[in-house]
Design a protein that fits this description.
Layout lengths: L1 H38 L14 H58 L5 H33 L7 E4 H11 L1 H6 L5 E3 L6 E4 L1 H19 L5 E7 L3 E8 L33 H11 L4 E6 L3 E10 L1
Parallel strand pairs: 2-4
Antiparallel strand pairs: 1-3, 3-7, 4-5, 5-7, 6-7
Helix pairs in contact: 2-3, 3-7, 4-6, 6-7
Amino acid sequence: MVETVVIFIFLIVGLFLLFKYSHLLRELKKISWTTLEIRNGNMNMRYRVHARQPAMQELGGELNRLVDYFQQAYDRMRFLEEERKRLIANISHDLRTPLTSLLGYMEALQRDETLSEEERADFLRIAASKGDALLTLLQDFFELARLEADDSVPEFGRVNLTELVPEILLDFYPEFTKADITPIIKLPDKPVYVRADAAHLRRILNNLISNALRYGREGKEIGISLREEPNVVWVEVWDRGNGVAEQDLPRIFERLYTGEASRNSTLQGTGLGLTIAKNLVEKQGGRIAVTSAPHEKTVFSFSLIRI
């Protein structure tokens, strides 16, 4: 009788273990099948483990987190590939346009013997202008590439904005005079100190003021002001020109992105100045933003840590 009970117990335990083994085997086959689907490119698949064992549940969770990580990396890789293609296309366009024009003028100077001295002088001036545009584009592109590849820390110092801003505006005096613009400057009477790399800060302001002059001169008003907060100081560069179209605002700081206004040959910049400014601001722990009401006020503002 006792032997029968023991055999019965062993039989029950054996059946239970066989059931657990079969269930575990099914779950492992499901994991294997899901892994095969993911390997074949179905990144929407996820592991669904129906098991009471904490170890199996933890395994399913870790595998799903791993897939999420790889999907994010894959999406990022696709995004960067599209960005690379668009970057090459934009560089090709922006190099080809002035280069084709420059070569056309140079060919005319070389072959057209009917040109007067005045026409030759005009052609040479235009060719030199196109050459300068090419040089500026290449310099900006290489500077941006250097900034994006360089992880070095900026040379931070204590910078007084109420002294630096007027110095930089003075460099633009000829451009303001030529455009018949008197800049509107609103700075506090007291010193305002920020933690910044002075060279980087100069480049940021140069790029933003140049941008305002290029696209906002028709409004005849360009200004710069400071807005103080407890921990940061916002520098605002504004104009009352044509502004930025609403569809261009989300992408205005992207590399070589240019809206319709900047495709006008009389206004076109390199498409890199704002990207460089954003990169330099973020390297100093700040943020940069833009708001625009066309023909009313367009404001580029960036923050720096106050000290």
